[in-house]
């Protein structure tokens, strides 16, 4: 038997039913956000609809990568209960203010410890990341392989990176900057990234374009010669 109010979701035009379905899915996501994890029966009771209807929404949301099912602890001698929770992608549907908090902290850091404090922190972070990557690579990895693996690292971090080569240079292009809001205010982030790439590849790396200054992408020109001098000045970073 359907619970009161469930049948009304079946009436109206296709557009109305689609809109109602989206609102139900949004409410379902809100419930999982609020409670952490719930089973289909609990969602059915909270939403005032049948478990069959709830499971249709769960299937669609799982297919979209917004939620995932997992087995909870068995209740007594019964089978383990199937529970649902938000995925990382589902969590991203809820507003976060990480960039604002990050920039606020960096502004306070600069005011408290001087104008070069942000650069020191960014460089320290970059050195830590570089050490982690180098530990994975091992010794004597050729430049081309290091660059391919570094490109994959950036891709996994949502930089939309593409590696190309032309003449005696490689070109590493980031089509997305996941830290754009921070980079627009703190160029130290871009400088630290450029220096980290140069340290990892042990060759000359020059920044030809930056999204934080209005370009459509970030682009690095990388020398194929491992004996090339690694620049330490920031003059090659576009302003």
Automatic annotation (TrEMBL):
Record's compositionally biased regions (Polar residues): 1-22
Gene3D superfamilies: Winged helix-like DNA-binding domain superfamily/Winged helix DNA-binding domain
InterPro entries named in the record: ArsR-like_HTH, WH-like_DNA-bd_sf, WH_DNA-bd_sf
Domain of life: Bacteria
Region (Disordered): 1-23
Pfam families in alphabetical order: HTH_24
Name listed for the protein in its UniProt record: Transcriptional regulator, ArsR family
Organism: Deinococcus proteolyticus (strain ATCC 35074 / DSM 20540 / JCM 6276 / NBRC 101906 / NCIMB 13154 / VKM Ac-1939 / CCM 2703 / MRP)
């Amino acid at each position: 038997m359907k619970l009161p109010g469930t049948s009304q979701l079946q009436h109206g035009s296709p557009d109305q039913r689609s809109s109602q379905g989206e609102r139900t899915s949004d409410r379902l996501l809100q419930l999982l956000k609020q409670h952490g994890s719930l089973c289909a029966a609990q969602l059915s009771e909270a939403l005032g609809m049948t478990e069959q209807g709830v499971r249709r929404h769960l299937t669609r949301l799982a297919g979209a990568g917004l939620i995932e099912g997992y087995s909870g602890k068995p209740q007594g001698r019964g089978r383990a209960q199937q529970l649902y929770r938000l995925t990382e992608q589902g969590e991203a549907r809820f507003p976060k203010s990480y960039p604002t908090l990050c920039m606020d902290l960096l502004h306070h850091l600069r005011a408290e410890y001087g104008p070069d404090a942000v650069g020191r922190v960014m460089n320290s972070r970059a050195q830590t990341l570089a050490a982690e990557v180098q530990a994975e690579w091992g010794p004597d990895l050729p430049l081309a392989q290091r660059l391919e693996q570094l490109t994959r690292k950036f891709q996994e971090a949502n930089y939309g990176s593409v590696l190309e080569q032309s003449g005696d240079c490689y070109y590493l292009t980031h089509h997305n900057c996941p830290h754009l809001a921070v980079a627009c205010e703190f160029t130290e982030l871009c400088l630290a990234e450029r220096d980290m790439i140069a340290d990892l590849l042990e060759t000359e790396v020059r920044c030809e374009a930056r999204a934080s200054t209005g370009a459509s992408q970030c682009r690095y020109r990388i020398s194929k010669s491992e004996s090339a001098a690694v620049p330490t000045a920031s003059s090659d970073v576009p302003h």
